[in-house]
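Homework-ish question, so no full write-ups if that breaks the rules, but can someone show me the predicted structure for this set?
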Amino acid sequence: GAVVSQHPSRVICKSGTSVKIECRSLDFQATTMFWYRQFPKKSLMLMATSNEGSKATYEQGVEKDKFLINHASLTLSTLTVTSAHPEDSSFYICSARAGTEETQYFGPGTRLLVL
Amino acid sequence: GENVEQHPSTLSVQEGDSAVIKCTYSDSASNYFPWYKQELGKRPQLIIDIRSNVGEKKDQRIAVTLNKTAKHFSLHITETQPEDSAVYFCAAKESGGYNKLIFGAGTRLAVHP
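A: Not a homework solution, just the prediction itself:
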């Protein structure tokens, strides 16, 4: 149980385009999902917290107009990187938590390369 | 807010030896401390967690200890095997708000045959 999927697993796009990443909880209802960014050999940097049916809460320094987050259902959250630039290239990972449980289950990550 | 520090950043051991990774946290109200293992290019996987109402928890070769007074917790891996090689992250749940996890910088463990 507690499986989280992400799609796509990797994506290459041109500068200026937008990219949407999906995060799904497959066997549980995720009231809260988290989006992280991870640079090579670095830790997980929290970008935003997404609660079903409400606006995402962004961490300091993360541009909410650039990283659009939508959590429209209890099993799906999306992250859209708008007007992507090469510096947005990174490994993006989501995690999901059920109800009031503390455990976060991570998706497999999406590797984004912006040319 | 919560701040988590993790040491060492790299750890190399011989197969069969023990490995210890230590973390400190700043928020005395934090009450949940998970440990994740991340293999190269893979997702972080929860390997063990501990809540503040206990001081130690074991699961086969893995154990975690918590010292609330000193605000530090440690991961202990005994009888290490090459497949234990990975990056290990500690985390502390921030009190209040959405109970987000604050991660340590990670420890790269290499177990040599």
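Now go work out the reasoning yourself. Hint: Residues 38 and 44 of chain A are 5 Å apart (CA to CA).
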